[in-house]
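S-adenosylmethionine:tRNA ribosyltransferase-isomerase (uncultured Atribacterota bacterium), 340 aa
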Amino acid sequence: MDITLFDFELPPSYIAQEPLKKRDDSKLMILDRKTGLVEHKKFFQIIDYLKPDDLLVLNDSKVVPVRLVGYKKKTGGKVEVLLIKSVSGYLWQVLLKPGRRTPPGTEIIFSSQLKGMVIGKDEKEGVYLLEIQIKGNFREILGKIGKMPTPPYIKKELQNPSSYQTIYANQEGSLAAPTAGIHFSKELLTEIERKGIEIIYLTLHIGRGTFELVRDNQVENHQMKEEWYSISSENARIINQAILDKRRIVGVGTSVTRTLESAFVQDRVSEGTRWTNLFIYPGYQFQVLGALVTNFHLPRSTPLLLAAAFAGKDLLLKAYREAIHKHYRFYSFGDAMFII
C-alpha cells in the first residue's frame, strides 16, 4: 500500500497551538462507519452517543518532562535533548539537536545537579547514547528543569504543563500525551459514570513508536518502535467479560486500541506488562475495539493509519476533508472524532 494515499494538505493555521481553556468544549465529529453519516457536535455531547452498557477504556499514562536544554561545556553551544529510554543505569537513548554538531565525547551541562556525556550513536535505532551524572533525585530534578516534550509543530511555549496531561494521568512514562483523553473533563467523566457506563484504565507509555511518521513508500514495510503497556488482572477480567457479553468496547485513543489489540491472544485479553510494536493499518481485523475516540492526525502518521483501518480509508479521508471545510483544529491540541 502506497503511503502517499495518506497525504493531505492542511493549512498551518489549522494546527492547534494551545489547548482550549475548557477541555470538553472542543469540537467533536461523529463518524458512523455503517451509514457514512457525519455529525458535528461539542465534545461534552459524546455522552449522548455512549450506551449504558458500553465499556469505556482510557490510558492513564502520564507525560514526563523529558525535554532538556543544556550547553556544551567546552563551547557553550546550546543543545536540546529528548530522553527516550533508559538503557541501563545512567545510560539513556536520546535525541539530540543539533545532533551532528554534538559528537561522542561532548559534555553537556543542564544544571548544577545534572550533566551528561555523549557516549556514541546507535545507528540502528537512530538515537544517541547519553551517560548522565546526577546529584540528587532524578525525578525531582526533571520536575524542576525538564520541559514537556510537545511536538515540533507546536511552536507556542506551553504555559500550563498540566494542560498536556489527561486529568486522570497517573503512571509516569510517556514522551507524548494520549491526546484523545485530553478532552475529558472531571465533570464529563462523572456524568458518564452517572449514566451507568463502566470506565476502566490501562497504561501504554507513548514513545517513538507512536509519534514517528512512516518513512517507507510502502506502508507494510514500516517497523514501529516498541512501547510498554500494562493491563491489571481485574481490568483484563472486565474486558473479557464485556467481550463475552457482546458489549461495545470504546477505546479512547490509538494507544488504548493498540494495547487492547496487542493483548488479545487466543480469544481473550491477557493481563500483565509487555512491549508491543503492533502496527495497525488498513486491512487489519479488529478483535476487541467497538468504537474509537481519536484526534485528527498528521499525514503519514501511524495513528492516522490506525484510524483509517477502523473507519475505512476513503470514509476517514472524506471526513478529514469535511473537518478542514468546517475549520476543525488538528493534531495534539485539536478537536476530536468519535468513530462508531
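The mean pLDDT is 96. The first strand starts at residue 27 and ends at 31. ok done for today
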